[in-house]
Write a structure and sequence with these properties.
Blueprint (H helix, E strand, L loop, with lengths): L9 E6 L3 H18 L7 H26 L8 H17 L4 H8 L1 H14 L5 H19 L10 E2 L8 H27 L2 H11 L1 H6 L4 H27 L1 E2 L1 H4 L3 H13 L4 H18 L4 H17 L3 H9 L10 E6 L3
Antiparallel strand pairs: 1-4, 2-3
Helix pairs in contact: 1-7, 2-7, 2-10, 2-12, 2-13, 3-4, 3-5, 3-6, 3-10, 4-10, 5-10, 7-10, 12-13, 12-14, 12-15, 13-15
């Protein structure tokens, strides 16, 4: 019998999590629990403010997945927000379905609408794709403005919410906030750490090279587009339920795309951390400087252009160059350790 000796050598291990990532994960879980428990520690005004912040985070992250990873720059995601919002109002107000159940039923609308929209738009590239998404959103707005059973331009009110007490509404909004953040931020993080996430990152860096290595670029872009449509639709349903009213100008307001672009560009594109930083900056700026109107938007626009020209990685890109402490680590590090002889 031949004996083979195992020689000592280096041992290779792949490390995916970091200390900063573990801390951030704990804080994320605490934040989600805190959101769900808001009725027990926050007033109604605070809950509405936090809900608005969560909507900003969710919409920006969906746009980040589209533009930052799939390379699909959209300026028309408000189409799915408005369509889902209207679907919620019709299901709850017209057909008498429980509004909290209607939220989840209404998510079928963006999932269905995203398919023909993508089949129409996927042949376009770069700025033409962006313009196409804006045109689609405008078509949705015009259709809603001329539909009699949607009350046309006058909009609809969600009067069925009067059947629920203030505490019940606050509890529902809090749970929906927690679920929205869990799905958009937590779901994106889970997806980026999966094998599909590896393919998506490869496609982001070089779609031609990724396709040559077996990545189905078309299918992956389609998946991201539909997922982003459903995510934005979820935001629209929650936001307009809290507003208790919807009309075409507010449902399909292009400001949602504008704020998503600002948040992602300033915070840091292709990073979840950048979305959180950019959202916080926008939220604070909007609270304290929104009253200045046009001047305020000009400042935000100039800031976005400056970041795009001189700091393409955004604030998080500058931070990560100095400190390697990701909050949501998705990279894989090869650790080499030597075996003892």
């Amino acid at each position: 019998m031949a004996l083979t000796a195992t020689l000592p050598g280096p041992r290779l291990t792949v490390q995916r999590q970091t200390r900063s990532g573990r801390i951030a994960l704990v804080l994320f879980v605490v934040a989600v629990i805190g959101l769900a428990a808001m009725p027990f520690w926050a007033k109604t005004g605070t809950i509405r403010m936090v809900l608005e912040l969560c909507c900003y985070i969710a919409v920006a992250q969906m746009w980040n997945m589209l533009a930052g990873y799939a390379g699909l720059v959209s300026v028309g995601q408000q189409a799915f927000m408005g369509a889902t919002g209207y679907a919620l109002f019709v299901l709850a107000q017209t057909f008498g379905i429980n509004p909290f159940i209607a939220i989840f039923l209404s998510l079928l609308v963006p999932a269905v609408l995203a398919v023909p929209c993508y089949l129409l738009l996927h042949r376009l590239d770069g700025p033409y794709f962006a313009i196409g998404t804006w045109v689609v959103a405008e078509v949705f707005r015009l259709v809603a403005s001329n539909m009699g059973w949607l009350n046309a331009g006058a909009g609809m009110s969600l009067s069925v919410m009067k059947e629920y007490s203030a505490f019940e509404r606050n509890l529902a909004m809090s749970l929906l906030c927690a679920l929205m953040i869990l799905v958009t931020i937590g779901g994106s993080y889970w997806f980026l750490r999966s094998r599909y996430g590896l393919a998506l990152i490869a496609m982001r860096d070089n779609p031609v090279a990724a396709a040559s290595q077996g990545v189905n670029v078309k299918r992956l872009r389609f998946m991201i587009y539909v997922a982003a449509a459903v995510g934005c639709g979820f935001v629209g349903a929650v936001y307009f339920m809290a507003q208790l009213r919807i009309n075409p100008p507010s449902a399909f307001d292009p400001m949602w795309s504008n704020l998503a672009i600002f948040i992602v560009m300033v915070g840091g594109i292709a990073s979840i951390e950048g979305v959180l930083i950019g959202t916080l900056i926008y939220f604070i700026a909007d609270r304290y400087f929104g009253e200045y109107g046009a001047s305020y938007f000009v400042v935000l626009g100039v800031m976005t252009v400056l970041v795009a020209l001189y700091a393409r990685g955004g604030i998080w890109g500058m931070v990560s160059k100095r400190w390697d402490a990701p909050w949501f680590p998705i990279r894989r590090h090869l650790i080499i350790t030597k075996d003892m002889p």
